[in-house]
Amino acid sequence: MVKIEATKARSAFSELLNTVKYGAGRVVIERRGKEMAALIPVWELRLLEMLEDRIDLEAARKALANPKNKIRVPLGDVKKRLGL
């Protein structure tokens, strides 16, 4: 993993993209010594998204299995309650 200050990352962005795609795999961008963000390969992003989807699906299944959640609320009512 490569760590780089944000000011240097700004000027070396193209090189950092190549590092992520072809080299070290991950780049952590720091500001004043604190980790702020990371550049990761797209395949890792997709893997994280799949993991999040699986966790969300398991939580939804658990909620639906709870007898207290058997009352269905129309989507329009939910949106209205949430002010959407």
The tally of beta strands, per DSSP, is: 3
Helix fraction bin? 55-70%
Give the structural class.
alpha+beta
The backbone outline, from C-alpha atoms, is elongated
The amount of beta strand, in percent, is: 15-25%
Average pLDDT number: 92
Instruction: Give the strand order of the largest sheet, numbering strands 1, 2, ... along the chain.
Output: 1-2-3
Would you identify the regions where 5 or more consecutive residues have pLDDT less than 50? none
Rg, please? 21 Å
Distance between the termini: 42 Å
Most strands sheet: 3 strands, mixed
SSE ordering: EHHEEHH
Q: How many helices? A: 4
Structural topology:
Blueprint (H helix, E strand, L loop, with lengths): L1 E4 H6 L1 H10 L4 E5 L2 E6 L2 H24 L9 H8 L2
Parallel strand pairs: 1-2
Antiparallel strand pairs: 2-3
How does this model look, in words?
There is one protein chain. With 84 residues, the chain is α+β, with helices and mostly antiparallel strands. Helices cover 57% and strands 18% of the residues. It contains 4 helices and 3 strands, in the order E-H-H-E-E-H-H. It has helices at 6-11, 13-22, 42-65, 75-82; strands spanning 2-5, 27-31, 34-39. A 3-stranded mixed β-sheet has the order 1-2-3. It is elongated and about 55 Å long. The mean pLDDT is 92.
Question: Quick recap of the structure?
Answer:
The protein has 4 helices and 3 strands; from the N terminus they run E-H-H-E-E-H-H. It is an alpha+beta fold and 84 residues long.
List keywords for this structure.
84 residues, 3 strands, three-stranded mixed beta sheet, 4 helices, elongated, alpha+beta
